[in-house]
Amino acid sequence: MSTAGLNPHSRIVSGMRPTGHLHLGHWEGVLKNWIELQKHHECYFFVADWHALTTHYQDSRGLEANTFDLVMEWLAVGVDPDRATLFVQSWVPEHAELHLLLSMLTPLGWLERVPTYKEQQQELKDRELDTYGFLGYPVLMSADVLLYRAGGVPVGQDQVAHLEVAREIARRFNFLYGRGEAFDALLRSAHEHMGSKQSHRLIGWAKQYRESGASELLNRIAHTLAEDSRLDPEERAALFAEARGSGREILPEPEALLTRASRLPGTDGRKMSKSYDNAIALRDDRDVVTRKIRTMATDPARVRRSDPGEPDRCPVWKYHEAFSTEETRQWVETGCRTAGIGCLDCKNRLLEGMLHELEPVWGRLHRLQADPDAVREVLASGSERARIKARETLGEVRNALGLARPT
Ligand code: TRP
Ligand code: SF4
Fold first, then answer.
1. Ligand 2 atom at minimal distance to the Cα of residue 317
2. Count of structural domains within the chain
3. Cβ of residue 314 lying under 6 Å from some atom of ligand 2
4. So what's the pLDDT on residue 95?
5. In the chain, at which end, N or C, are there fewer CB atoms within 10 A of the end residue's CB?
């Protein structure tokens, strides 16, 4: 994950859809990340059950069980409810209210242009995704993060476009409702000082920029403003904010923290994925893991025991990198390249390290399964905590919009 430039005070928000059991790739790629982040940041991690509904509304029955299973897995690997706030999206109805309010100012074009929108509709043909809810997926996700004024949002590459929508929505919101009278007065005087010809050019470019998002227009605006000696620095800043569509920061723009892809391939060497049937689930037991590793693909060039191999071409090696000690890794590198060890020796050593890491996870998982009330309690208190922050933001949002409030 790239956390360069991440402010230590940044609040972190991330969610996962409850669509089935996690595999080792999720653990290695996503959850280990969360566990690092929770040490130094205020973190909100939630089950995005409404997001699961956008695609699975026709078969929603497993949602509750999947929600609990998912959170058990988080807890089992070490996501810590005393450090991070863990909750369920649908238990914090403020997400829905903010989603509604944001939907008012979100242009349809922004949603239709998200690449995953058309792609997923194509891919999931059997699901009828011509729905209002599915189109609004990125708006709901925007509400999820803006509600907590997230600074950083750990996401995979496939979610970056959604987060870009969240940033645009925040910017538009701030522009529409974050402009006080002083700001407007400053803008009026700036336009006057520029003269009407320049003012009209600028307005035209800004309009084009908002429609196309082309950053060279923004550069041109910045350049033109910098050159214009009729303006003072405050006026330039106000004009630039206006052109960009930003105003007072009621809803800060969140930063995507790109989660690097997991190093762990599937048992056949391709990307690990449930749909390829090559995944090792976090819940697989000792026997299943052992069988899956023992039958796993190796360096294709190493056909016979006497052929030397190359760890860099071998999926098993990736697992050693994640689970084995430095000493074992050296033993593998040398032994493999000199044909000093066989692949089964290599895999058995890997299993020692993996099982050593997995046993305690399974132990915690079993204890949690036997005590679902404990999980419910974690989620109930997490959701209450999340609501406190959510209500605070929502109060300011309602104020900014001019909605009346109950006394
Ligand atoms: N859409 C995300 C996914 O499928 C899950 C998600 C929902 C999320 N809301 C979010 C992730 C807010 C980060 C922040 O992976
Ligand atoms: Fe892969 Fe290990 Fe066999 Fe080398 S010895 S090819 S690293 S399984």
1. 7
2. 3
3. yes
4. 98
5. C
- Under 8 Å between Cβ of 15 and 244: no
106-121 average pLDDT score: 91
Considering the domain architecture, whether residues 186 and 289 belong to the same structural domain is answered as: no
Element (H, E) at 14: strand 12-16
Give the structural domain span for 200: 179-243
Atom of ligand 2 nearest to the CA of 311: 7
Q: 298 alpha carbon to ligand 2 midpoint, in Å?
A: 6
Domain assignment present for residue 231? The answer is yes
Mean pLDDT to the nearest integer, 135-158 = 97
What DSSP line would sit under 289-325, residue for residue? HHHHHHT----TT--STTS---GGG-HHHHHHHHHS-
- pTM of the model as a whole: 0.86
- Can you tell me the distance from the alpha carbon of 270 to that of 23, in angstroms, rounded to the nearest whole number? 14
Q: What's the pLDDT score for residue 1?
A: 57
pLDDT tens string 276-304: 999 999 999 999 999 999 999 999 999 99
How far apart CA 286 and CA 268 sit, in angstroms, is 19
Same domain, 20 and 163: yes
Whether the CB of 299 sits within 6 Å of ligand 2: yes
The mean of the pLDDT values for the chain is 93
Whether 127 and 187 map to the same domain: the answer is no
